[in-house]
């Protein structure tokens, strides 16, 4: 694929060698500094379900599993266990939530580092560095890595699994292929122990091994069984009792019914309370000029709110209160987000046309995640179910699409595209750095 | 290269010492620590408080529209089955954190001046009294009842055997809206939450 893309991509004109890589590194350092600042400055435990994640961490700190039936008791324990271990190491002067946020940031940056490494197999180093640095500033990523929660852990391990799927040793001896599958299975198990989404990655990985190794049926079946079974073995002992406590219904877990009828009613009462097919085919202008959930029409538009939650704090957990000034800045970022969105769509078209077998796993995973999110928003017709952060495990396929779209641009446009992505990375980082909005009130 | 060995060894020792945790706190130190971390580091308040404490402050993660607590037996209709005790405790812990990070509460905690005025220990129980002086509003007394950890988390838990807060009571004049806020900041609880102005409620 790297050869294929490189041969179609024009020669690299423009600024001197590695200038873009150095600029990308500077953007990445800015993003890291922003996360460091957010970890201690952002109001304690604010963010998506912060207090409930804290309760899970505390349970593990005390040496017990989170209680099934509690708010987030159904979440697998890896991130919270890592957080509990970190808590034991933190000096008294460091707030625990700050340590947990830094953990989220480290896991998220790890995911982008893996994505960057994979991108270098498909596009040139400069484009790979630019796209990786850009990702660090995309608001949905920046916010998830500034909060306490298991999104980043799942993103890291799923990205690692998908990265391995691009390098399945199709021509290797069965022993080597199975060894490769075993390591992938271990990572898929860690993903499943981080968040339920990890099981989707495990299933997709098993299918990908079966498909890629199909020339040798016994090896293909053994690899698929390994990748499918090991994550079940690792995370099953946690999920089995949790699922039993929820009456055997995965839907009861996501709607809150497994925890309490009050939580279920609370979630069900969140607007819009009811979903219609038209909600999946509308894209109100508010997604660009007022990208917060309360804006006209956004609650009734799944694509619109999803887009807004990629490029802004659409659910108002961070840039609060939402003032005119905040809205103007968020709107600017949302408009600018059309550039990488366009590049991503272009890249997706190119990748689908190219039919590179190495990309089967990542692209299939992205597709399944998209469908799963749509299904989730149907089961739970609440604005809080329409969050792009649920799609963060699809970081790698998204990065591949944007990078391949960028690599396809002709000479001057490609330079402009790189500049735009890095500029957006800086702007996204600036907007998601805690505190600026408080001065605008 | 030679120098790295003792450096790494020292680092390992330091990490091991940190992992073993700080020496156990007495009742007074536990109360002082409570005020030190309240709202600033809400998660550490969980390690200072007992399950009984969380069943006493009345705060909960979610409520019905009529204000009654989740599915607990406190439902006025009594039609819902009570939550299992452990689930209810977790629910209250989340409510307790929510209250600490409520608007205004965080700012008010920084304005409290606290002085421990008395303590008495009887076996595994202790009482500690503190005088709390807010920047605005009248001073009040806050009494803590503590007990040695009964071991909910088991003997292997990092804080097993430490003193934990079992209950808190406040005495003295409330002193208007600022007094309410100060009292709520010093001890977030459901009764005070109900009397806070809307925008200050958790």
- Counting helices, strands and paired strands, the structural category of chain A is mainly alpha
Count of DSSP strands of chain A: 0
Strand content of chain A: under 5%
Which fold does the CATH topology of chain B refer to?
Answer: Nuclear Transport Factor 2, Chain: A
Find the structural class of chain B using helix and strand composition.
Answer: alpha+beta
- The radius of gyration computed from the alpha-carbon positions of chain B, rounded to a whole number of angstroms, is 19 Å
Shape of chain B: globular
Poorly predicted ranges of chain A: 1-11
Alpha carbon gyration radius of chain A: 21 Å
What is the count of DSSP helices of chain B, taking H or I runs of 4+ residues? Answer: 8
Distance between the termini of chain B: 55 Å
Mean pLDDT of chain B: 79
* Biggest beta-sheet profile of chain A: none
Indicate the percent of residues in helices of chain B.
25-40%
Identify the most extensive interface between protein chains.
A-B, 38 and 42 residues
Topology pattern of chain B, helix = H, strand = E = HHHHHHEEEEHH
- Strand runs of chain B, count: 4
Poorly predicted sequence stretches spanning 5 or more consecutive residues of chain B = 1-8, 64-79
- Counting structural domains of chain B, the number is 1
CATH architecture of chain B: Roll
Count of helical regions of chain A = 20
What's the gist of this structure?
The complex is a heterodimer of chains A (441) and B (202). By secondary structure, chain A is mainly α.
Question: Helix and strand layout, with pairings?
Answer:
The complex is a heterodimer of chains A (441) and B (202).
Chain A: H1 2-8, H2 19-41, H3 50-61, H4 78-89, H5 96-122, H6 125-137, H7 139-144, H8 151-165, H9 174-194, H10 197-212, H11 217-245, H12 250-255, H13 261-269, H14 286-289, H15 302-311, H16 324-336, H17 338-354, H18 360-379, H19 395-408, H20 411-431
Chain B: H1 4-20, H2 27-37, H3 42-48, H4 51-56, H5 85-100, H6 105-109, E1 113-122, E2 125-133, E3 140-148, E4 163-171, H7 176-186, H8 190-194
Antiparallel strand pairs in B: 1-2, 2-3, 3-4
């Amino acid at each position: 694929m790297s050869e294929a893309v490189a041969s179609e991509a024009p020669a690299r004109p423009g600024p001197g060698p590695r200038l873009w890589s150095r600029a990308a590194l500077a953007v990445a350092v800015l993003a890291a500094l922003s996360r460091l600042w957010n970890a201690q400055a952002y109001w304690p435990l604010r963010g998506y379900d912060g207090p409930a994640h804290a309760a899970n961490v505390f349970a593990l700190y005390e040496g017990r599993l989170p209680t099934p039936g509690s708010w987030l008791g159904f979440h697998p324990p890896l991130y919270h266990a890592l957080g509990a271990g970190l808590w034991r190491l933190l000096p008294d002067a460091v707030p625990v939530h700050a340590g947990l946020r830094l953990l989220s940031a480290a896991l998220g940056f790890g995911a982008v580092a893996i994505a960057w490494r994979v991108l270098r197999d498909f596009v040139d180093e400069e484009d790979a560095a630019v796209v990786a640095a850009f990702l660090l500033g995309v608001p949905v990523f920046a916010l998830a890595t500034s909060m306490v929660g298991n999104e980043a852990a799942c993103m890291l391990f799923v990205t690692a699994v998908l990265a391995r799927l691009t390098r399945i040793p199709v021509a290797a001896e069965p022993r080597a292929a199975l060894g490769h599958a075993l390591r992938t299975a271990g990572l898929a198990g860690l993903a499943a122990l981080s968040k339920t989404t990890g099981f989707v990655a495990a299933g997709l990985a098993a299918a990908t091994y079966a498909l890629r190794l199909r020339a040798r049926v016994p090896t293909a079946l053994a690899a698929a069984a390994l990748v499918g079974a090991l994550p079940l073995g690792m995370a099953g002992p946690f999920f089995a009792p949790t699922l039993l406590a929820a009456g055997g219904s995965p839907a009861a877990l996501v709607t809150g019914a497994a925890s309490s009828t009050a939580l279920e009613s609370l979630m069900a009462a969140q607007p819009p309370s009811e979903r219609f097919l038209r909600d999946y085919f509308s894209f109100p202008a508010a997604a660009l000029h007022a990208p917060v959930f309360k804006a006209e029409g956004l609650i009734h538009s799944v694509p619109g709110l999803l887009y807004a939650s990629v490029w802004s704090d659409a659910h108002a957990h961070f840039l609060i209160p939402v003032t005119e000034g905040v809205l103007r800045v968020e709107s600017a970022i949302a408009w600018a987000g059309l550039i990488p969105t366009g590049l991503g769509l272009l890249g997706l078209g190119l990748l689908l046309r190219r039919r590179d077998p190495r990309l089967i796993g990542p692209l299939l995973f992205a597709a399944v995640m998209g469908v799963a999110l749509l299904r989730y928003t149907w089961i739970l017709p609440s604005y809080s179910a329409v969050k792009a952060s649920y799609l963060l495990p699809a970081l790698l396929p998204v990065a591949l699409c944007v990078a391949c779209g960028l690599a396809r641009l002709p000479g001057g446009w490609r330079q402009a595209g790189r500049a735009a992505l890095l500029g957006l990375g800086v702007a996204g980082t600036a907007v998601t750095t805690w505190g600026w909005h408080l001065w605008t009130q | 290269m030679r120098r790295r060995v003792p450096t790494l060894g020292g680092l390992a020792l330091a990490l091991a010492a940190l992992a073993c945790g700080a020496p156990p706190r007495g009742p007074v130190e536990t109360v002082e620590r409570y005020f030190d971390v309240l709202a600033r580091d809400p998660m550490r308040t969980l390690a200072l408080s007992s399950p009984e404490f969380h069943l006493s402050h009345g705060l909960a993660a979610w409520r019905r529209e009529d204000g009654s607590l989740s599915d607990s037996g406190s439902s006025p209709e009594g039609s819902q089955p009570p939550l299992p005790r452990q689930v209810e405790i977790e629910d209250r812990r989340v409510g307790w954190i929510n209250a600490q990070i409520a608007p205004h509460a965080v700012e008010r905690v920084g304005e409290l001046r606290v002085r421990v005025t008395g303590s008495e220990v009887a076996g595994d129980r202790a009482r500690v009294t503190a005088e709390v002086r807010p920047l605005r509003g009248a001073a009040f007394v806050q009494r803590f009842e503590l007990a040695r950890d009964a071991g909910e988390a088991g003997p292997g838990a990092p804080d097993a055997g430490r003193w934990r807060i079992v209950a808190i009571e406040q005495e003295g004049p409330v002193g208007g809206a600022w007094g309410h806020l100060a009292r709520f900041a010093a001890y977030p609880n459901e009764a005070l939450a109900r009397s806070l102005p809307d925008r200050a409620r958790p």
